[in-house]
Amino acid sequence: LANLGAFGVIPALSGPAGEPQGHDAYRGAGYRHPLKGAALSLFLLSLAGIPPTAGFIGKFAIFHSAVGSGYTGLALVGVLTSLISLYYYLRPVVVMYMGDQTAVSLPAGSRLEKAYVALCLGAVLFLGLYPGPLWELITVVLPSP
User: Does the pTM of the predicted model rise above 0.70?
Assistant: First the structure.
């Protein structure tokens, strides 16, 4: 859901030159387009595994299963790679909000685009704040050994 949402917001941040190809294209986007910037930030935080998002619950479930199965070393490697990936997921967020405010003016977007992003955003937050249904699904599909 976080990937679907992030790849739904990126075209929404496209200017006249097309989709952004580098971080410089996002400079100031968080100020000029606060809802799109906040949505992309939340999706990237979910991909990084930061609470209270569904990405945190997913990573927690994976690491919990690895430790429960006796793969503590593998879980530690997973945690370390998640920490390293945090830099890459947060870089666009930093550029959007910490850079100068030179973002291009974009059209408001269609209703379908807004509904798609809102649905993904709602699901990522709902499953992060209320993970019970997701956790039950995970334990049924992937029972602990």
Answer: yes
